Amino acid sequence: MTNGAQSLLSTLVASGVDVCFANPGTSEMHFVAALDDVPAMRGVLTLFEGVATGAADGYGRVTDRPAAVLLHLGPGQGNGLANLHNARRARTPLLNIIGDHALSHADFDAPLASDIAAVSATVSTAVITSTSPDEVSTDAVAAIEAAMGPPSGVATLILPADVSWGATTSAPAAAPLPVERTPASDSEIMLTARALRSAQRPILLVGGRAARSGALEDAARVAECTGATLLVETFPSISTRGAGTPVVNRLSYLPEFAASQLEGCDLLVLADAASPVSFFAYPGLEGDLVPDVTEVIVLADASQDAPGSLAALAAALDAPAQVANRNPAGLSEIPTGPLTSAALAAAVAATIPEGTVVVDESNTGGIYLAGATAGAPTHDWLALTGGAIGYGLPAALGAAIGRPEAKVLCLESDGSAMYTLQALWTIAREGLDVTTVILSNRSYAILTMELARVGASAEGTAASSMLDLSNPEIDFVSLAGGLGIPARRVTTAEDLAAALAASFAGDGPTLIEAVLPAGLG
Amino acid sequence: MTNGAQSLLSTLVASGVDVCFANPGTSEMHFVAALDDVPAMRGVLTLFEGVATGAADGYGRVTDRPAAVLLHLGPGQGNGLANLHNARRARTPLLNIIGDHALSHADFDAPLASDIAAVSATVSTAVITSTSPDEVSTDAVAAIEAAMGPPSGVATLILPADVSWGATTSAPAAAPLPVERTPASDSEIMLTARALRSAQRPILLVGGRAARSGALEDAARVAECTGATLLVETFPSISTRGAGTPVVNRLSYLPEFAASQLEGCDLLVLADAASPVSFFAYPGLEGDLVPDVTEVIVLADASQDAPGSLAALAAALDAPAQVANRNPAGLSEIPTGPLTSAALAAAVAATIPEGTVVVDESNTGGIYLAGATAGAPTHDWLALTGGAIGYGLPAALGAAIGRPEAKVLCLESDGSAMYTLQALWTIAREGLDVTTVILSNRSYAILTMELARVGASAEGTAASSMLDLSNPEIDFVSLAGGLGIPARRVTTAEDLAAALAASFAGDGPTLIEAVLPAGLG
What are the pLDDT digits (tens) for B451-497? Predict the structure, then answer.
């Protein structure tokens, strides 16, 4: 006899969903037991739900397939919510399975009861509650289809305990993967081509699936033959970078800089990118960064085939097959001297191997990274899409499972690292080839900047102490060791470069605490 | 000129809300800056929102006054949600302040935007969004009043950034504290007294505010003069225990045991306690633990004055002034030999000083604690009210700030500790007198038990590995050291007792990793 949990796991595996990041509790015990019956499912234990959801985000970004997460009722979902938010903003396909009390228990308002669906709805493209063991398979298929989209995103399946343990009579179904997306229509392509040709200062802004290798090539071809400026969104879910890739600048995080990038623009063409707005509001600054006079054309949104649309647009423009303006290979000189943000960027650029997946949550300490690594060996770059800190370590874990052949480099600022540090334990447990660099400046440096930018001041000690992480100093070498990761602390550029090179030369996880000047230094 | 944030802080302080556990971000920078202008507000920085909300829960439980938390938009609230859930179940007065994007930014769907109010509503008795600087003070008063109740609980104030930075013209208001509660009416008291006198096997179940010293005395007087069995709810928010307090058993967590405690009961009188239901559903077991034949009388619910109702009931029954059945002082013999759960309980009982606040998240490793400490010096006991693990370390932090004269002992199981370990850093930063014992059995032992109880099995390695925390072993001494807390590991009963005694003899934080037998041993 098969129970609902076994049917669910068979359905997931048959649909290509064969990794589950799990923080199970009592209501999920039949799901856990079913892992023995469906060995093709890889269960990955995490110590905190924010690690599970962030890992599924990282996995989904590098594979374009959903991982499942298994969370324990409403509080488990709460713990995972911030990284579900980031996944929602990344449009990562992700199957969010939440164990709930048995349906028979629903009326009792037991201590762990809460409104799970109301919270799920804030991050999900679909919320499905399975109400019988025989329906759990088709419910799972519907949830996987919702996760794949288009548009892709977080789909939530609420799984009552008695649906897990009840007997099924029907055979498990399977969801078709991958899905087809439709490009812009011929007339839309023609209209966009005409507009680009006649614009004085056009900008092509790419994001989402259009920030990757093939699509980026086509976007660059379009830009070069029309004189458009090619920009990539500020925080792409995954983008292809490095030597030989087309030259493309990122839209700045700082609204003043972004506004100057957009100044004088008479045509803005969007390929799987949102129309630029300021990340935060600031007193006296406009939130909408697009000049009033700019015509905005959405070539393709997240539901459409943006790469196909860019290819069609390049063809319609008779764009040359080859991109002229490519990033030249950079210098791989090992930096020396004091460890500054610039030196850190140079050390990364000088050491990363071809094909590295970089998970970037370096925030202020990482300001020189984009420039320094433009000519580094080709790599993929994952950014913090939703602004909810604590995504880096979990996403690195997920990316390493999704792309086992690659080196994964996690660039993690100290304040953000402390949100989901538990990820290190799972990285150690799974023996993943992840190099973590903690950018340790012992402060919420970005807030020191933002405090001034919003027109507030922290001249007194009460306010400024809220931005300070130096009392006590956090010892990341001890923390990593306590979670099973070999670690060392570096204070010079050459030591950082050597530590990075040594880590990349080996297999398995390491952590490097890179001590940077305090604050914004 | 005063801005909204300054007006808010002045209102809080004037209302007796003078502690704020904070994880601020850009949208909260004016609140942070205002800490310099309103020095009576104590800002306590945490590294993770779940620490802030759990600390406010612990603070509110020991003071009956709300602390404020300051969270950063929807993801910050998500990170804090599990401990808000626990606070909701504890009916802890708590002011949940969430910074949001400026109202002027609301239409832009910026990366950090999400439906904050929908999530707040799942844990809050009131959700108020402040829409102008001049209204923020009266909105804060309304939120504090909602937090105080009755019934008390989590009240949420959503604070857009431009409400914080905008100028106010009105003077700050203040909420009246504390609030009055009404006891049961005379006729309800008479009816309950008559029912208790005529019942064959009555049970008086106390919880909430009725689990504390004075109310517990009156409850015991009622029980003794009517022959009722006195029980306290399974997970009280705070209860008075130890030598000299009335003998009272806890309603069991395990539904089979709880059902046997309730068997044959013809009258159940509830004083600020919910009617007993099973914590989880199990195949073939009833969820409602109250026999069908039992008459249930709610003497007082959480909105009413349960202590006053118990006092009136004791008077109506002409109950003797003195309780006969009190816990005798226990033996304070120092245990020796291997460190087991029983030895751990004995070591705690032998060493805790009078007036200790015990924060209990010991789960399976703590099963002998209640029995062993029944005759220990009088102490207060905080339990995990909502089942969302990760409450212990934060609640200990908050309790230590709320009751600075007391020793705080945090009994924390390893799996739960890893949820909100960041609390140790704030405990170190604030120099709090908290002794933390990690019950390190390197497993989710409770799940090993629950797996069998729900009728599932984990004979294979895939399932059983999901309950195992031994690969790699978590080194809590390193982790505590990395967060600024002196720590040691103990493996014998006498070493644990010595470490506890040394910690209680000193001031300031320490951590003891108590290595227990694996699993349920």
Answer: 888 777 767 788 989 988 989 999 999 999 999 999 999 999 999 99
H/E element, A489: strand A487-490
Q: Which residue do the tokens 């400046």 mark? A: A441
Give the DSSP letter string of B11-73.
HHHHTT--EEEE---GGGHHHHHHTTT-TTSEEEE-SSHHHHHHHHHHHHHHHSSPEEEEEEH
CA-CA distance, A279 to B101, in Å (whole number)? 9
CA B214, B218, B220, B221 torsion-angle sign: positive
In terms of DSSP bridges, do strands A67-72 and A19-22 run parallel, antiparallel, or are they unpaired? parallel
Q: DSSP letter string over B280-323?
A: S--TTS-SB-S-TT-EEEEEE-TTS-HHHHHHHHHHHTT--SS-
Contact A396, A410 (CB under 8 A): yes
SS3 of residue B444 by DSSP = coil
Name every residue whose Cβ is closer than 8 Å to that of residue A135 and which is 6 or more positions away in sequence.
none
For residue range A408-458, list pLDDT tens digits in order.
999 999 999 999 999 999 999 999 999 999 999 988 888 888 888 877 776
**Cβ-nearest to B85 among A78, A109, A447:** A78
Distances (CA, A) of B360 to A38, B236, B268, B330: 37, 11, 27, 20
User: For chain B, which domains are there?
Assistant: 2-168 (3.40.50.970), 186-316 (3.40.50.1220), 341-515 (3.40.50.970)
Backbone phi and psi for residue A151, each to the nearest 5 degrees, phi listed first: -75, 150
DSSP string, B246-258: BP-EEPPSSHHHH
| Residues B391/B237, Cβ–Cβ less than 8 Å | no
How far is it, in rounded angstroms, from Cα B124 to Cα B85? 9
Whether ipTM tops 0.85, in short, is: yes
Select the residue of A30, A101, A459 nearest B36 (Cβ to Cβ): A459
* Residue A44, both tokens: 């990955």
Judged by phi (left if over 0) then psi (alpha if -120 to 50, else beta), residue B509 lies in beta
A33 contact residues in B (CB cutoff 8 A)? 451, 456-458, 463
All residues at 6 or more sequence positions from A413 whose CB lies less than 8 Å from its CB, including other chains: A361, A362, A363, A364, A365, A366, A438, A439, A441, A445
Select the residue from A19, A466, A477 to test the B interface by mutation, using most B Cβ atoms within 10 A: A466
Query: What does the block give as tokens for B379?
Result: 């102490």
What residue type is B390 in one-letter code? G
Q: Among B37, B466, B475, pick the best mutation site for testing chain A contact (most A Cβ within 10 A).
A: B466
- How many Å lie between the alpha carbon of B398 and the closest alpha carbon of chain A? 17
What is the least distance, in Å, from the CA of B315 to any CA of chain A? 33
In chain A, which residues have their Cβ closer than 8 Å to the Cβ of B281? Answer: 101-102, 104-105, 161-162
The DSSP-derived string for A423-486 is: HHHHHHHTT--EEEEEEE-SB-HHHHHHHHHTT----SHHHHGGGB--SSPP-HHHHHHHTT--
Is the dihedral angle over the CA atoms B103, B108, B110, B113 positive or is it negative?
positive
> What is the sign of the dihedral through the CA atoms of A368, A444, B512 and A50?
negative
